[in-house]
């Protein structure tokens, strides 16, 4: 491809997640995007390396948006993987992705007013980086007027993902959006996959800052006003951009999907096949590893004997396990979890029980 | 009981074990006797508290014999539980219990030539301390001429213990030894228990130093010579008594059972019921707890849901587990183990595999 034809894109990495579904690895102090889950690098490192300039896209230095508590960690990890972000935006509070999109669009304009913005989560797995950049390049023409979301050809009837129903093809490899759907039940998911009309909603967006800001202003003027005011009243301190706490506190928390994508006439979807996964539970990590290797998926210093269908993950200490069937065993600095794969969605509940237990225990001291 | 009739006894606590069957809690750096397994105190602390002066026995301050590497740990733990030992003997090498018995007898003579010596392992559970002291007092008359070992009425056909076949009663509550047996197979153990003629061999001994030294000299003059020479050529440094490394290295390693008890005419056995257990595996710890409480045995910061027959042990960080059957889950600073209760004896093998794995991995760095 001629270098002159490559799109210029500002990647904005959203690192706001603080989920507990991957406890004990993912914790409030270091959520999953800061851990090496699917490879030897952390997920945010993999994400940053995925948006280096390449033969399909002229990526500019990335902008990272994360919780205040994670700013140093994000900067350190990116630096360690050889990526120097243009800025790390520190959120004083979590205000969901609509506010992030507004901040991202405005900063992207500042960095390069002619570039597109690629808004992408820090905690997704994409095994084929070249395919991903190819999809971004292919969607770039449509993204001048539209907010393009990337839809993943479903490999299985996942119930943990939202789906997008394809509308008419509007351009080479870009389609109208017929509908966004919530996470479906198993049967519905199976129908979606069989129909060939649905894609997984990846939560990755390509757009021009002007269009994004226009649409946010149209549907959520309150988000537009407070998010941009938080940026304007904030300040830059070297690498770090601080948002004004009062303005950002006043900003409603809403997702960009709900606030804009499900309302706007400017949505479009670009199908993409690149080994995408949103690792929302330990069983998904097992599935990702098991598909390509063996029945057991092990990571770290692990001895696993006479076992099948297991995920055994040792972060900092050795784990020895024997004669287990379809179990998840994860050991990290924060704790240990052991449960059947089919109960992986219950990790969150168990972490809440642990917290309640600690809260009860702490007044007594130790 | 009249105080003047109470036997004077020097307790010698053998803390030489370095077993890996209770990995990851028991490690070379801190074997099981230094951990809180059956109670909130470590096993060596429980052992030291068991031999405080009481209404049955005038116990003198204890002597501890342990590996050089564990001397400070032993002294610190005893001090923390309010027990000040008379001495802590540091073994430059492990030389099994015959050498320990010789050193124990000679030091006991030095501390009080008129007292009996009680040689007892640091890593046994005895739930009824009063019964134990009562058994020591009851055996003290016979122990003037005999080496009395304590035999435990078997509660189940354990295959992990040695057994003693009772001979004729020779004195109130003391019997001749008809035979010492090795660890039996399951069927044999069941026959032993059914017969009523067998006791578990506790490995606890009561004797006068003179008789013990005479018998060791008679059956193992080499052990006698080198063990005592190691003591004579060693030196005392405050609380710590150091054995001469060259002499102790030259001392043959043999157990007191094999070297003396199975040979001597001076053996006797005193039956004892006091909730004794030698926690040789995680399944034994489960049994000990499950008998008195529930089907699951948990210790530490544990959330256990929809599970049965499990032992879950959290030393230093929380463990969450769900929908498990008859599993052992132990988490410590050293690592994590997960395996079925019926495979508890395989822990040792798994630890060897982990070590081999680490040894292979270490040349590569990091």
Overall description:
The structure is a homodimer of 366-residue chains. Chain A is globular, with a radius of gyration of 21 Å. By secondary structure, the first copy, chain A, is an alpha/beta fold. In chain A, a hairpin with a 2-residue loop joins β19 (327-332) and β20 (335-340). In chain A, strands 1, 2, 3, 4, 5, 7, 8, 9, 10, 11, 12 and 13 form a twelve-stranded mixed β-sheet that branches. In chain A, strands 15-17-19-20 form a four-stranded mixed β-sheet, with helices on one face. In chain A, strands 6-14 form a two-stranded antiparallel ribbon. The termini of chain A are far apart. Chain A folds into two domains: 3-278, Alpha-Beta Complex (Spore Coat Polysaccharide Biosynthesis Protein SpsA, Chain A), CATH 3.90.550.10; 282-359, no CATH class. The first copy, chain A, has helices spanning 43-50, 71-80, 96-111, 129-139, 186-195, 209-219, 221-232, 245-250, 256-261, 282-292, 347-361; strands spanning 8-15, 58-59, 63-67, 87-91, 116-121, 124-126, 147-152, 163-171, 174-181, 198-207, 235-237, 240-242, 267-272, 276-278, 297-299, 302-305, 311-314, 319-322, 327-332, 335-340. Chain A contains eleven helices and 20 strands. At the A-B interface, β18, β19, β20 and α11 of A face β18, β19, β20 and α11 of B. β20 (335-340) of chain A pairs parallel with β18 (319-322) of chain B.
């Amino acid at each position: 491809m001629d270098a002159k034809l490559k799109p210029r894109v500002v990647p904005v990495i959203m690192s706001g997640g603080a989920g507990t579904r991957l406890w004990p690895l993912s914790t409030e102090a270091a959520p999953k995007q800061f851990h090496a889950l699917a490879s030897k690098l952390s997920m945010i490192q993999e994400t940053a390396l995925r948006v280096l300039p390449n033969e399909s896209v002229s990526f500019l230095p990335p902008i990272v948006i994360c919780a205040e508590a994670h700013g140093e960690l994000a900067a350190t990890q990116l630096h360690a993987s050889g990526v120097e972000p243009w800025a790390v935006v520190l959120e004083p509070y979590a205000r969901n992705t609509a506010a992030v999109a507004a901040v991202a669009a405005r900063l992207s304009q500042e960095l390069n007013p002619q570039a597109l913005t690629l808004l992408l989560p820090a905690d997704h797995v994409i095994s084929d980086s070249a395919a991903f950049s190819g999809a971004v390049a292919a969607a770039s023409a449509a993204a001048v007027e539209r907010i393009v979301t990337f839809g993943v050809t479903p490999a299985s009837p996942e119930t943990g993902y939202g789906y997008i129903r394809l509308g008419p093809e509007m351009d080479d490899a870009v389609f109208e959006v017929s509908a966004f759907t919530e996470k479906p039940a198993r049967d519905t998911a199976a129908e979606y996959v069989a129909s060939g009309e649905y894609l997984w909603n990846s939560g990755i967006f390509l757009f021009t800052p002007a269009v994004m800001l226009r649409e946010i202003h149209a549907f959520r003027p309150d988000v537009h006003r407070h998010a941009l005011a938080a940026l304007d009243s904030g300040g830059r301190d070297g690498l770090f951009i601080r948002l004004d706490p009062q303005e950002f506190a006043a900003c409603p928390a809403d997702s960009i999907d709900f606030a804009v994508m499900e309302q706007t006439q400017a949505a479009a979807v670009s199908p993409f096949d690149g080994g995408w996964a949103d690792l929302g539970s330990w069983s998904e990590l097992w599935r990702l590893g098991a598909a390509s290797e063996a029945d057991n998926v092990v990571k770290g210093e692990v001895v696993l004997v006479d076992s099948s269908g297991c995920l055994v993950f040792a972060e900092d200490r050795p784990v020895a396990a024997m004669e287990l069937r379809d179990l998840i065993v994860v050991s990290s600095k924060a704790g240990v979890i052991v449960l059947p794969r089919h109960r992986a969605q219950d990790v969150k509940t168990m972490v809440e029980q642990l917290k309640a237990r600690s809260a009860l225990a702490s007044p007594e001291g130790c």
